[in-house]
Structures are given as C-alpha cells and as structure tokens.
Design a protein that fits this description.
Blueprint (H helix, E strand, L loop, with lengths): L1 H18 L2 H20 L5 H42 L5 H9 L1 H25 L1 H9 L4 H11 L2 H14 L13 E3 L7 H9 L4 E2 L12 H9 L8 E2 L7 E2 L9 H7 L19 H16 L6 E5 L7 H7 L4 E6 L2 H21 L1 H10 L26 H18 L4 E5 H6 L1 H11 L6 H4 L19 H30 L1
Parallel strand pairs: 1-5, 1-6, 2-5, 6-7
Antiparallel strand pairs: 3-4
Helix pairs in contact: 1-3, 1-4, 1-5, 2-3, 2-7, 7-15, 8-11, 14-15, 14-16, 16-20, 18-20
C-alpha cells in the first residue's frame, strides 16, 4: 500500500507542475536570460541601453524565480498531503513509506514512471493542439538553437571579427583562384531565384552557402566544421514559404546579405533600404567578400566557382559588375501578375507567422531577408519611401514590381543575363543551353540533366483592384525584359550552331 500511495503522490506532483505550467515558466526564464546575455554581448548597443534592458530582465527573472519556486512548493505540498493523508487514515506507516521513497529501487522506478508520464502527457497535448504543432514545424528550432542564433545575429561586428580570425587560421586552405567567374542569381522574390539556385548549385563546379553555415555565415570553414560534428544530415522538409520547396542542412540558401549588412549598415534604415551606386567602393569589404567567396568554394569538394542567390543584389548591379568584371549575374523574370500575387501571398503568410512566433521575424531580419511580413523593409529603388501600410494590397506590390525592374533595366550592364523563368520551365531543353553558355560551362550536359526539376508554370492569374495603367506599365516592362532574354538566347543558339 505504501508503494501505491507514493506513486499517487508522484502523479499529484507531476499534475500540479503541469497545471501551473512549470515548463512554460522555465522556458520563459531561459528566454529572458538569453535575451539579457544577447544584449550584454552586443557591441552595437550603447552602455546606457544595455543597463536599462538588463535591469528590466533582472526584475522579470526575479518575479519568475518566485513564481517557479511557488509552483515547486505547491507540487511538493500536494504530494506530501496525499502520502500523509493515507498514513493518517491508518492505511500504512508513514516511516515505512519514507523509507521506501528513499531507497534506490523506488527512486529509479519512479524516475522512469515520471519520464514516461510526462512524455505521454506531452504527446496527448500535442495531438489536441494542432496549431502549436504547425508552429513548431514552421520554426523548427530548439531553445538552444534560438539562443545560438540570437547570439550570432546580435552583432555583425562580431561576425566580421570571427571571419577575420577564420581567415588567419585557414589561410593555407583558401585558394583565391576560386574567386574567378562567380555567379550571382538575383531578382525580386518569387521570380524563380530559389529554383535557379537549386539547379545551378547542384552542378559539381558550383559551391553555395548552405544551412550548415548558419548562424555564423561569415565563417563557413570554422563554423561549418564545428556544426558538422553534431548535426546529422537529416531529412528535408518544406521551407516556411509553403511553396513546395524542401530544404535540409545541405541545401543552398541565400545568406550572402549578412555580409552586406555587416559592412554597409547605413543602407539599412528602419523602414527601407537604399540602393548602392556603382562608385560605392569599400576596400575592406571587397577584400573580405573575395576571401569569403573563396572560403565557400572550399566547403564543397571539387567545386571551383561560387554561386549565390541574393534578391537584394538587384539594388547593386552596377557595383557587383565593378567588383567582379568576370561575373555572371542571372536575373530570372516572371509574369508580373503571377509574381505580384505570390508576393502578396507570402507577405501575408509571413505577417501571420511573425505575429505568432517572434523568433521567425528575428531570424529573417538577422539573415537580411527583409522582403515580407513584419520584417518588410522595401528597397527604395526610385529613392522614394514605399508606404508599408499598403503592403496588404496588390497595388503596393505591383507598384514595387515596376519600380524594381525599371531600376534593373536602368542599371544592368553586359554581365546581366535575363532569363525568362516561365519560358525556361515550360521548355527546359530549349532554354538551358543558353543558360549554360551564359555561365561559360564547358559542358551543358550536367545542366540539361537538371531539367527534370523544373515544373511548367500554371495559368496566369488575374490581379484585381489595381489601376489599369499600372498593369499596362507592368506588361510593357515585362515585354522589354523578355525581349532582352530572348535576344540573349538567340545569340547563344547561334553560338552553339557555329
């Protein structure tokens, strides 16, 4: 009878902990502590602001300490009252129950029961709260992962310093010949840039940043080696965009913007990003960028060339051509109606996600993905500030589309290659040879083998609630870019015929 009473006391103990949400409070303690540590380590925050935020965190921790201590006392009291009550009723001797509770057999058995009971209740709760499950799938990071990312994002200056340290450590492995003929894939989001990156990064000669380099992306050799020791290959899962593209630790991704943010903070305002001019030169940045490119190539055995996807690079086409005269800059273009609908849908999707999960916003802001949701900071292509309050309307995105690609046409030099994404997906075999030629590939066979990954585009949707004049301007602009893409493809086919 004593053992039964002790087990009932254990169940009472766990029940009180769960009813009073002890795990949630403990998580809040960890989150508050992580935030305070991040502030203290952030060299970009003033001492006065650090003092204010740390003081606020200290008060929060004090309150949570008393609350979680109260929960513990209540749980112990509930268990003690149940066991003492049975003894008071004469069902067993209290000293006998205490002796059993202090013995190793009961301690081991009760620990196992407690673990099974806790995990079982977690599983039952997860089945009843599908929304929470969806949220965890959308932001698949543990508390430790979140703390690590917050620490990494807190100071671009620290990221730069770690990158410089890495250069000194791995200098013999860094081959600057790998900086030659880099490839930059860029366009507004939802134009097919991710698919283009997936296709090209799958070729043996190209190396790209991957999720293994997160969150210390400016030191891919140092962090990539460390993270490889405890990260498994893992299965791919659909990314947060909900667009059917699966990603895993070794998938290529757009992390290059973190480098631009580290060296050009003045271009990133609170509400917008200002474009770069071709004469905006920074020798320290250029040296770091070239070395970083060489490091990325080293991370993939057999690779000889760098490739990146960075949507914001359309704001600095002229500068990239100045920095890398032998580069190929690939700009996928898409029908404006389909792209605008997709832009609006993604903005609303991420707005909802950011409202439910603050870390998702911090993550996007930390890696420089400032295109959607509460992280939206539009690029001021025409040097005017887009009204973000209208971002839930198709007119906002159609206007943004027009200003973006007018800027692209005005600043694109000879290194820029326009690729009609819709036409390429509809007829890969007809368009991929042109792309292979633009990239100076010795053999187009490997690229042609990737054609199976391209899917034919669906019907073009109607865009409602926008001025007819805007649609006409967008269609005219799209036609100009398609003509330029077609002209490049024609020259390429003539070259192959010869």
């Amino acid at each position: 009878m004593s053992v039964v009473a002790l087990m009932l006391g254990l169940i009472a103990f766990i029940s009180v902990l769960r009813i009073l949400k002890a795990a949630q409070v403990a998580g809040e303690v960890i989150e508050t502590t992580q935030g305070a540590i991040g502030v203290m380590l952030n060299t970009d925050v003033s001492d006065a602001e650090k003092e204010t935020q740390v003081r606020r965190a200290s008060l929060q921790l004090l309150g949570k300490f008393f609350w979680i201590a109260s929960i513990g006392i209540a749980a112990i009291a509930a268990s003690a009252v149940l066991v003492w009550g049975g003894a008071a009723l004469g069902l067993y001797a209290l000293d006998r129950a205490i002796a059993i509770a202090m013995g190793w057999p009961f301690i081991l058995a009760s620990s196992g029961v407690a673990i099974v009971l806790w995990l079982g209740l977690d599983r039952l709760n997860s089945e009843q709260t599908s929304d929470d499950t969806v949220q965890r799938e959308e932001v698949p990071y543990s508390g430790l992962d979140i703390a690590l990312h917050d620490f990494a994002f807190a100071s671009p200056r620290r990221q730069r310093a770690l990158g410089d340290f890495e250069t000194a450590v791995f200098r013999r492995r860094i081959d600057m010949d790998h900086v030659k003929r880099p490839v930059f894939v860029t366009s507004l989001p939802r134009a097919g840039t991710t698919i283009m990156l997936e296709v090209l990064a799958g070729l043996p000669q190209f190396a790209s940043a991957t999720y293994r380099h997160m969150p210390f992306t400016l030191s891919p050799l140092l962090w990539g080696g460390l993270s490889g020791a405890f990260r498994k290959s893992g299965e791919k899962s659909e990314r947060a965009h909900g667009d059917g593209i699966d990603v895993g630790f070794d998938s290529p991704e757009a992390f290059e913007e973190m480098l631009w943010m580290a060296f050009w903070p003045d271009h990133y305002g609170k509400d917008l990003i200002t474009p770069w001019a071709s004469q905006d030169r920074n020798p320290e940045f250029e040296a770091f960028f070239r070395t970083h490119i060489a490091k990325i190539v080293v991370t993939k055995p057999g690779a000889t060339r760098y490739i990146s996807k960075n949507n914001a690079n359309i704001a600095r086409l002229g500068l990239i051509e100045q920095l890398f005269p032998d580069a190929s800059i690939i700009v996928p273009i898409r029908n404006p109606r389909a792209q605008v609908q997709s832009l609006l849908r993604q903005h609303q999707r991420f707005g909802d996600l950011h409202a439910r999960e603050p870390f998702a916003r911090r993550y996007m802001e930390g890696i420089g993905h400032l295109e959607f949701g509460k992280a939206l900071r539009p690029i001021a292509f025409d040097m005017a500030s887009p009204d973000r309050s209208l971002a839930d309307t198709p007119e906002f995105w159609l206007t943004y589309w027009i200003t973006a690609y007018e800027h692209v046409l005005a600043t694109a030099g000879p290194a820029v290659v326009f690729v009609d994404h819709d036409a390429m997906c509809a007829d890969p075999e007809g368009f991929l040879p042109h792309l292979a030629d633009a990239l100076h590939l010795d053999d187009a066979g490997d690229l042609m083998a990737m054609s199976a990954t391209l899917r034919a585009p669906g019907p073009v949707p109607d865009v409602q609630g926008v001025p007819t004049e805007l649609l006409r301007r967008a269609d005219d602009l799209h036609a100009q870019m398609r003509d330029r893409a077609l002209a490049g493809a024609t020259l390429s086919k003539q070259g192959y015929a010869k």
